[in-house]
Structures are given as C-alpha cells and as structure tokens.
RNA sequence: GCGGCUGUAGCUCAGAGGGAGAGCACCACCUUGACACGGUGGGGGUCACAGGUUCGAUUCCUGUCAGCCGCACCA
C-alpha cells in the first residue's frame, strides 16, 4: 500500500467492477425483502451540482446499508425531460449555429433536434452519477419521455379527463412572456419590489363628482369593466349602482359592491380588470362582468389601448400615466412596496393573463392525500415538514398543466373543426369522437414536466401494467429522499397521483434534506458565481472525501454550508483510515488467516476495542434506521480516529513489537477483525476507499466489500465494566502526559511511575493496564503497590482510585508544586460542593431516580478520595519547605 | 397576516432533563518504526434574553429580541 490513497487512479476501475459484479441490480425473483427508492430525476440537460451530490450521497448510504443488511435493493436511476430548460437550450444552440428559430424549422424537425441533443448530451449527468459512486440499478434506468412513461402520462391524462378531474377553461394564469408559456402558481416567485400606487379619477356619469381608484398597473385600465367598493363602506354606499366614465376611452362602467375590497388600502375603491388580475377575475365571475383584454400573450397592448396599441405594456406605462396627468385624471402617485411575480426559471416579471388552458381540478385529489397523511400513512423526516405539506394541500388551487412548448408530452386532445367537440383518448385520434369528422387537429401544447414526474415512482416500475414483477415487488417504494424545496413541486404531486392511480402512498417515508450554501451562507447560484463543481472536488480529492464531507454536514432538514476547509477535514479522515489500514496490513503476513476471537484469552485493550466496536455498530445502525446520516457518520469517525487509531493501535504496538508470539497473534486477530468491520460499516459512506483497502486484506480472494454483509452486533463483546476500566487507565495516561507537557519533559526522557492504589481492587485494575500506562507515558519503570512510600522529590497526581507519583529528583519547584496542588484542591472541593448542594435538597433524595442518586454518591467518594490525597501531598510539600 | 427554522468556543456546527462537545483556527512541545492530510498537551463558552414546569433546565413550555425561510395578500 502507498503512503497515501490515490482516488483518481482507482475510482473508475472500482465502479466498473461493481457494475460488472451485478451487485447494484435488483432481483425481483429473489426471496429477500425489497428496499426500493427512485432517484429524484435530474434534468437531462443538467450538470451535477452539489445539491445532487448531497442528495445522492444520502440515498447511496441507504442503498448500500440496506443491501449489506440483506435486502433486495432497487435504487432506480433516470432523468426528466425538463420541458422549458431543454427547449430553451436547444433553441439557443440552433440560433447560434444556424441563426434559426424553432419556428423556422418547424415542430417536427425541432423535436427531432432536441432528441439528437438529448442523445448526445443526456448521458453527461448519468456519467457524473457514476463518478459519485451511486449504487443505482442501471439496467432499470428511465427517462420521462420513454415509451412506457409516456404511455403512463397519457393514461393518467385520459382517466383524469374522463373523471372530470382535468378540464380546459379560460382562467387567469401566470404568463411568462420570455418563455412564451403559461406557468403553474408555484413556478412564480414573488419578490418584494418598490413600486408606485397611481391614484386616478374616474368621473361619475351623472356629473355629480368622481371616484378615485388606486392602482399599480395603470396601463391595464383600458380593460376595466367595473369599479368596486366594500359593501359596508359608508363613504361610498351612495355610489353603488352608479356609473363612471373611463378616462380617455369614455367607456361606461358600473360601480358595484364586493366584500373582497379592502377599505384600508388605497382609496378603498378598486378598478376591476378581470382579464388581468386573479382577484378581479373572481369578482368578474360573481358579477357576470365581461372579460376585456388589453394586453396580449406577447406582453403588448392591443387595440383596446388605442394609441398605445402594439407597445410593450410595461414600457408604455409611463406614457399612459403622462397622458392621464395631462388630461387631469391623475390625482397623485405614492411609493409602495409590493410583491411582484417573477418567472422562477428566467426571472421575467409574469403577467396574470386570461387564457385558455388545461387544468387539474385539485380538490378531489388533495382530499384523499390529506386523509392518508392524517392517518399517518406517510412518515415525514423530519416530522415538521408534514405541516408544510398539509398546509399547502389544504389551500391548493387548480393546477395549470398546459405549456406552450414543443418539447414534452403533447396533450392527447383533438378538436373538431366541424362540430367543435373535444376528443381525449389514449390512441392518436383519426376522427372526432362526437361527429366522426376527420377534420380534427391536436392540441398544440405539451404537459408540465412535473405532470410526468408526479408518476415517476410507479411509471418507472411498469405502471399502468400492474402485473410486472417490478411493480409487484418494489411498489410502493420504501423511502424517498429529496430536498425540501420541492415538497410542492414533486412530493405532493407524487402523493396525490399515487393515491389516485395506485390506491397507495408511493413511498412509506419521505426524507427531506436542506440546501447547500456557500461558506458565507449564501445560496449557490450562477449569478453570484459561488457555485462549486462537485466533479472538480472529486477529481482533486476523490468521491469519498466529498461524500463524507456532505454526510457529516447533514443535520435533519437543515441547510449546510460548504467550504474547502471542511473538504480538507474529510480528506484527512480518508488519509487516517488509509494509514490505519496500512499499519494493520504491514503487520499481517500475506498468509494471515483470520482466527475466531477467543474472548477469554483477550487482553483488556482487546476487549475494550471490541466493546467500542460493538457499541459503534449499534449506534450506527440505530442512527441509520432513523435517517440521522450526520450522526451516524460522526459515530464511525470518532470510533475510527479516537478509539481505534489513537488508543488501540498504539496499545497494540506493545504486543506487535514484543517477544510473545501468542500476544502478537492475538493482537493481529483483533486488529484484523476491527478493521474489517470498520470498513464494512464505513462502506455505505465512503465506498471507494473502503473497497480499495478491502482488496489489500489477505485472504480476500477477489470477494468485493460491496457484496459483503453488515457486521453482526456481538452482544458478548459489550462490556461496560471494561469500558470504565479503560477509562481510568486512559485518565492516568493523560494525567502523566499532561505533567510531562507542563514541565517540558521531552518524550525522549524516560521517567519512572509509582502508582499507589487506594484498594486491592484498584491495584488489580491498574495491573491490567500497567504496560499500556508505561508505554504510552514513555516510562522506563512502573511500580504498582499499595505500600509505596513516595519520594520527596516527586510530582503527585490524584486519579480515580489511585495516586501516581513521578519522581523527579532535582526538578521539583516546591512553590510551583504547591500552587498546582492548591488548584487541584479547589477543583475537587468545588465538585464536592456541587454534589453536596444536591444532597442537601431533601427533594432530590426523595424524587430523583435512585440510579442518579447512587451515581452522585459514587462520584462524591471518588472526589473525596482525590481531595484527601491532594491535601496529604500538600502537607508533605509544606513539610519539605521547612 | 399564517407557518416554520436558527441563535452553544474566534469560525462552521453537533448534542442531550443530572459534571459544556467536535472539526477548523490558535498556543506549546514532538522528524516516537501507519499517517506532519500526523502525534501529545493546552487556552477559550453565565449554551441570545425573560419568565414557567421540574428535586434539577443549556436541553421541555411560554413570551421577547435577532437572523433566515416558506405560504397567502397586496388594487
């Protein structure tokens, strides 16, 4: 083994070996119980970012863990077609290369281009997924526009239409003029911006005065159809039913009463523009008002705006205001701050627009989802996200699913040019379903990408065919792991679609993690240029370093900051593990045969490390079952670094470099066993390096770690007494080291140690650890006797159950020693006081649990013993001063 | 307006009803035969604030303050 692990040299080979071994492939015919997950399908056009890397690390930990625990694991990979993003990208390319727009080449040719593009670049992201080491089943990879998945989309659309849960209608939708398509409500991001509130006079027709309305979008006034006031607003009650004359156009519109009006806001008078505002739209329906439109889908004003026709609405605003002002209609303008909707993809301001679109009627789908969740049939991790989920579903509005794009699942609806009927069906229509006319044309639009993603957990397993072995065995899936920012986009939609079409929750548990931020806590974004390319990290440090860094940074549902310092910390751990393994390997012969561990023949240190190993295993398992990834990783880190490397390996060196063959073999067996189990437990987190180390272990015969079993917890190894015993040995070692350091006694200078135990029992304890104390304190001799008479020129240490003397003839500064002992004395006195305070409270004795009281008593005895040792020593020092 | 998260060492963050933790940074010492991507030792925090529950609160509850996020409304 080299001095350092070289991830670049081995990761690709190891991944290829894993793939070849078939370990990642699920087997629906195997007798083992299923553990299944579907990957949140990344954008086929995309590149891997740190968020993916994190998300995938967590899933891979689960996949590999459950595989090692004997489950038949299916982790299904794939990508989605990302309608707008992909289309935009190919359009740009087309424009750059040929100077053509998609309209220049036509729909069929354009869609062909996108497929070409997808075939060429769509594998980039799946290649990157391999670099992360994901143990996905590539034989089951899916794409949302695959034949089967497209069939699922059509089936769902047709069935929902037949059930009346999908309808086409004229509604206010969010229109992004840059993307040229409608968006759903959640694709709109509201951003607080400074704006102006324009107060405009609308004269009464009867000449008796005027009303003043307030608006932020004065350019829409051309499409006003009414003015509304609150029914109980005394200021305006006499005006209800009267008519006002719209400035410039002279059109007459009514004043009406509607409770939606906020009397406090603006003037309390609202202009009603049903075609350009969702609230006004509702008011319009209630009062049967016409729906006049003055801005088209191109964002331009139309002929209703008279001389402004043809101009961009937003740009024309100022001119409209100027004209109103000139003609005396503008009363005044005030500054306000209001939330303006922006396209979440391209940040263009979205226009509320009246438009004929397809919608999913949400009520009937949301209700069952809410019922199932209330019955506890979906576990959220962390639980608090359930509230977010429920709140959204309780208030959800109908989902606009049609997109004015060419790339995606085309809506299976045909319109008849003769009878005007709509035909919705699975197969491509050849004639009108109502009048049999062949003069029909298909709807031009495609479906929202999330419509197909919503079906992902079952469409990928063969649905609508529910008899496939995969669907039978792996649906519903076990766990879904995703970031909390797509609870609405994806999780909620999978839930209600899953319930509607499979009658089951698509997953039993949904694990939500946070978002990656930069080292200053900012979201990573292209515009800030603070993004980090995970592939670069992998190339520089290896996938394991990245994965371990992300895993240890995980705390449930919370964001994490990314920094190179953390990466280095993680890299250092890889190096530590590598070298610990290297040490073990160097001390085993090539023909080494693992022996069974004979508990009775083990030394205290052996028992202790096996105890710690079993405890670490227990904790890691519990934490992984609870999806506490960060804690699980930390438990293993601490075990590996602190217990194994810092203590056990150092202690093992005594036997390894000693005379006794028996001792040496004993320690070799333990080292080998611990390392092997450690590699197995770390494998889900850092698969490459553990696999690589595994290959160096003797007697492996080409067996892969990835296919091995998670180690059994050996109950017989759990030994708390041994743990406390080692604890006191470690304390003794640390105390002596502390003194060495304080007194600048270099390691090269050997010292003697005299241990004076306070009891026979303590003497036996220290006997078991005395070689370790001696070696780890660089002591040339050690005596452990109850009747030791301390030399006068010595430093005295009070440890649990004993006093330790370090004879240092000629090096003792009595004043300094007295000072140190005084400090010690105060420390133990304080501890005793703290405990006595508890005991002096009668309620403590009466109400605290017996174990707690008992534990405090034992502590007090220990402190008391130490205190008297220190006091005695103080007296001795004082006597010497004379 | 509704809901949520966060506030612990200089920084990043764990944690748990009964003696304040880690990593990094810092200081000192150490080329000890796995590792300087290392070892040993050390300094450093009234666990945001105020109440309450409890024998006992940094941990549970309520409120306040500060930072952040989501949802709704905003003519």
Describe the structure.
Helices cover 45% and strands 17% of the residues. It is an alpha/beta fold and 882 residues long. Helix 18 runs parallel beside helix 20. The longest helix is centred in the C-terminal third of the chain and has 32 residues. The two termini are 62 Å apart. The structure holds one RNA strand of 75 nucleotides.
Attribute tags:
29 strands, 4-stranded mixed beta sheet, 27 helices, 4-stranded antiparallel beta sheet, 17% strand, 882 residues, RNA-binding, alpha/beta
| Broad structural category | alpha/beta
Can you tell me the residue ranges where pLDDT is under 50 for at least 5 consecutive residues?
A: none
Strand order of the largest sheet: 6-5-14-16
Helix percentage: 40-55%
Q: Average pLDDT, to the nearest integer?
A: 92
Largest sheet: 4 strands, antiparallel
C-alpha end-to-end distance = 62 Å
Return Rg in Å.
Answer: 37 Å
Q: How many helices does DSSP assign?
A: 27
Got a strand count? 29
The coarse overall form would be elongated
Q: Which percent band covers the strand fraction?
A: 15-25%
């Amino acid at each position: 083994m080299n001095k350092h692990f070289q991830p670049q040299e081995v990761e690709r080979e190891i991944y290829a070996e894993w793939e070849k071994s078939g370990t990642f492939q699920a087997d629906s015919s195997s007798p083992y119980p299923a553990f299944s997950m579907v990957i949140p399908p990344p954008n086929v056009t995309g590149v891997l970012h740190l968020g993916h890397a994190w998300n995938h690390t967590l899933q891979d930990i689960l996949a590999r863990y459950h595989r090692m625990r004997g489950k038949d694991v299916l982790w299904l990979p794939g990508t989605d077609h990302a309608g707008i993003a992909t289309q935009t990208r190919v359009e740009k390319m087309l424009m750059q290369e040929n100077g053509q727009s998609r309209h220049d080449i036509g729909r069929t040719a354009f869609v062909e281009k996108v497929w070409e593009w997808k075939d060429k670049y769509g594998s980039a992201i799946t290649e990157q997924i391999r670099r992360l080491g994901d143990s996905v089943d590539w034989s089951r990879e899916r794409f949302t526009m695959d034949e089967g998945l497209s069939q699922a989309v059509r089936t769902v659309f047709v069935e929902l239409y037949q059930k009346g849960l999908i309808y086409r209608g004229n509604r206010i939708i969010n229109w992004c003029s840059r993307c040229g398509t409608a968006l759903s409500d959640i694709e709109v991001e509201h951003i607080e911006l400074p704006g102006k509130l324009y107060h405009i006079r609308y004269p009464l027709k009867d000449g008796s005065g005027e009303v003043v309305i307030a608006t932020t979008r004065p350019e829409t006034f051309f499409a006003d159809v009414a003015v509304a006031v609150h029914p109980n607003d005394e200021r305006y009650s006499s005006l209800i039913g009267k008519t006002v004359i719209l400035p410039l156009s002279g059109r007459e519109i009514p004043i009406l009463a509607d409770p939606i009006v906020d009397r406090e806001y603006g003037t309390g008078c609202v202009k009603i523009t049903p075609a350009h505002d969702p609230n006004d739209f509702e008011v319009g329906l209630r009062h049967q008002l016409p729906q006049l439109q003055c801005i088209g889908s191109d964002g331009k004003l139309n002929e209703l705006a008279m001389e402004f026709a043809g101009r961009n609405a937003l740009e024309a605003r100022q001119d409209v205001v100027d004209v109103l002002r000139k003609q005396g209609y503008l009363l005044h303008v005030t500054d306000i701050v209001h939330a303006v909707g922006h396209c979440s993809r391209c940040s263009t301001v979205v226009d509320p627009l009246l438009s004929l679109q397809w919608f999913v009627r949400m009520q009937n789908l949301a209700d069952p989802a809410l019922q199932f969740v209330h019955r506890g049939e979906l576990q959220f991790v962390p639980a608090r996200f359930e509230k977010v989920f429920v709140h959204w579903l309780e208030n959800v509005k109908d989902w606009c699913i049609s997109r004015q794009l060419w790339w995606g699942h085309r809506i299976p609806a045909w319109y008849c040019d003769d009878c005007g009927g709509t035909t919705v069906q699975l197969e491509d229509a050849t004639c009108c379903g109502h009048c049999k006319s062949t003069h029909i044309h298909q709807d031009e639009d495609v479906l929202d990408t999330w419509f197909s993603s919503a079906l992902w957990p079952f469409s990928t397993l063969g649905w609508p065919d529910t008899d496939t072995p995969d669907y039978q065995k792996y649906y519903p899936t076990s766990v879904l792991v995703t970031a909390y920012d797509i609870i609405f986009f994806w999780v909620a939609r999978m839930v209600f679609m899953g319930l509607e079409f499979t009658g089951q929750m698509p997953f039993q548990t949904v694990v939500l993690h946070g978002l990656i931020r930069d080292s200053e806590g900012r979201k990573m974004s292209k515009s800030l240029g603070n993004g980090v390319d995970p592939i670069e990290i992998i190339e520089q440090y290896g996938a394991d370093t990245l994965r371990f860094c992300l895993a240890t940074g995980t705390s449930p549902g919370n964001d994490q900051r990314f920094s190179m310092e953390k990466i280095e910390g993680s890299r250092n751990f890889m190096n530590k593990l590598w070298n610990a393994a290297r040490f073990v390997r160097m001390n085993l012969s090539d023909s080494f045969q693992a022996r069974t561990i004979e508990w009775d023949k083990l030394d205290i240190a052996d028992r202790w490390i096996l105890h710690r190993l079993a405890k670490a295993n227990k904790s890691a398992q519990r934490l992984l079952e609870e999806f506490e990834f960060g804690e699980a990783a930390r438990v293993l880190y601490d075990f590996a670094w602190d217990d194994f490397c810092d203590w056990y390996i150092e202690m093992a060196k005594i036997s390894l470099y000693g005379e006794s063959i028996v001792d040496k073999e004993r320690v070799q067996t333990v080292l080998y066993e611990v390392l092997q189990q450690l590699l197995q437990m770390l494998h889900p987190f850092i698969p490459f390096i553990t696999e690589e180390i595994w290959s160096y272990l003797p007697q492996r015969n080409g067996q892969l770690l990835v296919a091995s079993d998670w180690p059994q917890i050996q109950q017989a190894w759990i030994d708390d007494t041994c743990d406390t015993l080692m604890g006191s040995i470690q304390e003794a070692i640390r105390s002596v080291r502390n003194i060495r350091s304080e007194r600048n006694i270099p390691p090269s200078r050997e010292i003697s140690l005299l241990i004076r135990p306070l009891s026979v029992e303590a003497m036996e304890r220290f006997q078991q650890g005395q070689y370790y104390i001696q070696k780890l304190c660089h002591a040339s001799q050690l005596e452990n006797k109850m009747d030791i008479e301390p030399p006068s020129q010595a430093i005295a240490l009070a440890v649990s159950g004993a006093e330790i003397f370090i004879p240092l003839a000629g090096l003792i500064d009595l004043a300094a020693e007295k000072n140190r002992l005084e400090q010690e004395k105060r420390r133990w006195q304080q501890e005793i006081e703290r405990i006595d305070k508890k005991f002096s409270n009668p309620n403590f004795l009466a109400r605290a649990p017996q174990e707690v009281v008992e534990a405090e008593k034992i502590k007090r005895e220990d402190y008391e013993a130490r205190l008297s040792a220190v006091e005695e020593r103080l007296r001795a020092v004082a006597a010497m001063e004379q």
